[in-house]
Every structure is written in C-alpha cells, then in structure tokens.
Amino acid sequence: MRIAVIDDESIFRMQLQMMVEKIAAEKEIHMEVEGFASGQEFIEGLSNRRYDIVFMDIFMPDMDGIATAKRLRDLTERTFLIFMTASEGHYPDAFSLHAFDYVTKPFTLQRIKQVLDEIIEHTPMDEAFIKITVGALEEKIHLKDIISVTTDGHYLEINRADGVTNRVRLTSGEFLKMAGDDKRFIMVNRGIIINMDYIDYVDSGDIYMDDKTIFPISARKIAEISQQIKDYQFSNR
C-alpha cells in the first residue's frame, strides 16, 4: 500500500511515518510511506504516482489541506483520505470531501493503528498473482501490480507499477487465462491488455495510463470498450 503524508511540520511527517512502518512490520504488510511538506508538492507528485491512503494536515501555508484535498478529489475518489489537525472545527469540510477519518494531533500509535485497521478491513489485501519463468527462475507477480501487457513477437512484455518490465514467452490468451476472471484486465486492441485501475483518462479512442503510456483502442470497438471502462470505473469508485 502506498501512503502519502502531507504536513508542513517535519516532526509530524517523521512521527507518522515511523508509526506506519511499525504497524506495517507488525502486520507483515508492505506499506510505502512518502512525505510532502506542502499541498502543492503533493499535487505535483500525483502526476506520476498514486496513493492508497493520504494523511492530510488541514492547516498549511499557501495551499491548505482542504484546498489540496479538493484537488485530490478532482483526480480520484478512490484514495482513503484522513485529515490531521489540532482543531476539531473542520468536520463539515472534511466529510464533504469524503474523508474516511479525522485524526486530532498529537496522535498516538493506537489511534493510527485503529485507522489503518479499519482501512484494511474495507480493502482486503489483493494477493492474486501469476507465476512466470524468468531465465532459470520462477517469479510471482501480483495482478494488482501489473499496469499493462503488450505483445512483442512470440513474447509478452508485462509492465509493472514498480517500473520493471518482464519479457516472457506467452500469448495474450494464455495471460488472460492465468489471470482468471479478474475484471481489471481488458484487451483494448490486438496484443494490448491493460489494467483498468491504472487508467488516467480516455480521449478520442486512446487510453492514457498512469505511467504515461498511451494505447489505441481497436477502431471497431471504441464504443464498446469505452463503455466497459466507464462501467468498471463507476462500479469501483
């Protein structure tokens, strides 16, 4: 899980990061934490990153937490948003932005653990994976980490969220069979399969992905595939 902490005070960013890492170690769950000193810095970071959980301080100079959260919500409704503040006077603003929770400073390890426990209950960890052979080794790849799969001759290139590309001797059909009935994956053109969780936007028959790749939709299926994507995104907001 990717977690962003936005707070102009470094002591709170460091404290929360340490708490999250301690909780992650206890639960044996991978949690990657990244800190941002301002709302603007965080919004700029969203151009090439996505986060499962965002801890947002409300009182920050220039762009405060409410304004930053509005920008976040313009981009996605799916991120768990938790506001942090020493004051309790912003509940209406916080929950109008679909905040998951509200943490009052100074926060405790117990309180942060409670918030993360509730999020994990709402989002069961996705452990579905495929196994591929890389050289003489067998490697396990979680389906949630695959952005796209493209055909190159007799091989597939599996493009992952961590920037790694695995080249394996498989067909598109074999990959889809391995992925089972996972609804995230859709073939948008001959030899092109994408994970709809990583779509940035669709425009004029092209799909723009979070990793900046662009894929054309089959000309004969633009309306059909565009509708499938809309239906998936609507049901997974």
UniProtKB/TrEMBL annotation:
UniProt entry keywords in alphabetical sequence: Phosphoprotein
InterPro entries to which the protein is assigned, alphabetical: Bact_response_regulator, CheY-like_superfamily, LytTR_DNA-bd_dom, Sig_transdc_resp-reg_receiver
Pfam families listed in its UniProt record: LytTR, Response_reg
HTH LytTR-type domain: residues covered: 130-231
Protein's UniProt keywords contain Phosphoprotein: yes
Residue ranges occupied by any Response regulatory domain in the UniProt entry: 2-120
Biological process according to GO: phosphorelay signal transduction system
Record keyword Phosphoprotein present: yes
GO MF annotation, one: DNA binding
Superkingdom of source: Bacteria
Chain positions with 4-aspartylphosphate modification: D57
Free-text function comment from the UniProt entry: May play the central regulatory role in sporulation. It may be an element of the effector pathway responsible for the activation of sporulation genes in response to nutritional stress. Spo0A may act in concert with spo0H (a sigma factor) to control the expression of some genes that are critical to the sporulation process.
Protein name: Stage 0 sporulation protein A homolog
Organism: Pseudobutyrivibrio ruminis
Lineage: Bacteria, Bacillati, Bacillota, Clostridia, Lachnospirales
